[in-house]
Amino acid sequence: MKKILIANRGEIASRIIHTCKRLGIETIAIYSEADEDMPFVKEADSAFLIGPPPVQQSYLKGEEILKIALREGADGIHPGYGLLSENVDFASQVSEAGLKFIGPDALTISEMGDKVGSRSTMKAASVPVVPGTDDGVDSLEEAMRVAKTIGYPIMLKASAGGGGVGMVRCESEQALSQQFDSVKNRAKMYFGNDLVFIEKYITNARHIEVQIFGDDAGNIVHLFERNCSVQRRNQKVIEESPSPNLSDETKSRLYQAAVDAAKAVNYKNAGTVEFIVDENDEIYFLEMNTRLQVEHPVTEEVTGYDLVEWQIEVARGNELPVKNQDDIQLNGHALEFRVYAEDPKTFMPSPGTITKLNLQSELDGIRIDNGYAENGKVTPFYDPLISKVIVHGKTRDEAIEKSKAYFSEIEIEGLKTNIPLFTEVLNVNSFKAGTYTTAILNDWSKK
Ligand code: ADP
Ligand code: ADP
Ligand code: MG
Asked: Which of 88, 101, 131, 329 could be a cystine partner for 110, CB 3.0 to 4.6 Å?
């Protein structure tokens, strides 16, 4: 591969361009009218405007994007995360046009892309799944019947959902009957598919996911786990690797289940198998993300590998850079903080102009995956992620102390960010002890 089109924006587009540059690969950016002044547009070797700000008219126009790639002589397309990254039609159109889609096969994306389908594939492969329905539930009556057998609280979920959107916890039959139509309608509106299903709601849960990687030769390895339990609106804000408060025995079960999951679908390229771990260390498959994950840098910092480079190698048809599981070692501890333009108490997006942006630091072991320049505008059209800050330490405590020092130094002005949240979480006892669950930010706005 000599020339790659990046079908994404913001920090992840910049991050992919950096690896391509290091590997001597030319890059093509595409951008919407809202993103003309973003760093990724300038960093790419060439950049093309694809349309107005709304994603339907720009970043989701797969056919347009493919046309540009063909016209400009690209031989691969990197979809990043979100947007077209898990779009089966796009992945197959790219391959049919003779270009490499940097990700798994379209077939794998379709097998693992919807939650209902992936749950049955995993069950068949003996991977434990969250107790719940095998198929979608069509009516409120059916939903109430199965919820009664599963037992409340339950989670009502859109099969095609993602990014924390399309799921509601229901404590009672009454709550379920109030929510059923709205979850179904939202599923249709956001994901074009109104299939919903029911899972048992696991309380006192941790979100632990395993990074896996496969190649055309059938090699499959894991790159350890990430704990992503600091969430608001069922979406991650702080992630870390390795996970504190998890026994080696539980970790082994997670790695085995993740590798089994990947083998069951002949997985190629980067993927993440997400699990819920309950208070008794029972593990349950949640979903698989068939793409590079937002929080992949924590894994890069503790393993020392560049996962985008691995993705490109595998897409080229080469074997995994490291095929032998025992050769993949952990070094120290990494924390990632997603810096969002949002209110630190209510978690509502807070678009605006970044009048001052000073993220650099003298501290060592700090990586900044940044998407914006000073005077850049965070618009309401996209995810309000500004930057990701990844802090590496020899130990978890060292990484925590360094993070505190870092966030007291840097400056972002002109809009609200969630940096004050990080400073508070770093001082919460359950976070310091590593025993926190996905409930850590519940009732945060009332504090
Ligand atoms: P990750 O799963 O990589 O940890 P997120 O859940 O935050 O990260 O999702 C990554 C990005 O992709 C976010 O911008 C999110 O809104 C978007 N996203 C994820 N899944 C979907 C989906 N199925 N449909 C639309 N957007 C999605
Ligand atoms: P998405 O595709 O939006 O990432 P997930 O199924 O991965 O959806 O769930 C996102 C988050 O919601 C999980 O990390 C977890 O915190 C919470 N969650 C989802 N399902 C359950 C469940 N059955 N019980 C408890 N928490 C859940
Ligand atoms: Mg998920």
From this structure: 88
- For residue 55, how many other CB atoms are within 10 A of its CB? 17
In terms of Cα–Cα distance, which of 411, 216, 224 is closest to 300? 224
**Token couple for 276:** 């819920």
Residue 27 near residue 20, CB atoms below 8 Å: yes
How far is residue 14's CA from residue 35's CA, in Å, rounded to a whole number? Answer: 13
Q: List all residues whose CB is within 6 A of at least one atom of ligand 2.
A: 130, 155, 161-164, 199, 201-202, 205, 207, 231, 234, 274, 276, 286-287, 438
Residue 406 pLDDT exceeds 80: yes
Cα-Cα-Cα-Cα torsion 321, 323, 326, 332, nearest 10 degrees, comes to 30
Ligand 2 center from residue 104 Cα (angstroms) = 23
Residue 408 CA to ligand 3 center (angstroms) comes to: 31
Residue 112, H or E segment:
helix 106-113
Q: What is the mean pLDDT of residues 312-334?
A: 98
Please name the residue whose Cα sits nearest to atom 5 of ligand 1. 163
- Indicate if the pLDDT at residue 446 is higher than 80: no
Nearest to 307 by CA among 271, 359, 278: 271
Q: Which amino acid is at 85?
A: S
Quick check: is 206 catalytic?
A: no
State in Å: Cα 234 to ligand 2 middle.
6
Closest ligand, as measured to the CA of 198: 2
Give span(s): CATH 3.40.50.20, the chain: 3-102
Burial of 80 (0-12, 13-18, 19+ CB in 10 A): buried
In the chain, where does the domain assigned CATH 3.30.470.20 lie? 206-445
Q: What is the CATH architecture assignment of 3-102?
A: 3-Layer(aba) Sandwich (3.40)
Reported as a pLDDT band with limits 50, 70 and 90, residue 445 is confident
Residue nearest to atom 23 of ligand 1 (CA): 162
Give the integer Cα–Cα distance in Å for 391 and 305: 16
Per residue in 75-119, pLDDT tens? Answer: 999 999 999 999 999 999 999 999 999 999 999 999 998 999 999
Contact between 24 and 96 under an 8 Å Cβ cutoff? The reply is no
SS3 68: helix
As its CATH architecture, domain 206-445 has 2-Layer Sandwich (3.30)
Using an 8 Å Cβ cutoff, are 222 and 259 in contact? yes
Q: Does residue 203 surpass a pLDDT of 80?
A: yes
Which pLDDT does position 444 carry in this prediction? 86
CATH architecture of the domain formed by 131-200: 2-Layer Sandwich (3.30)
Query: Residues lining ligand 3 (ion), CB within 5 A?
Result: 274
Q: Which pLDDT value is given to residue 443? A: 83
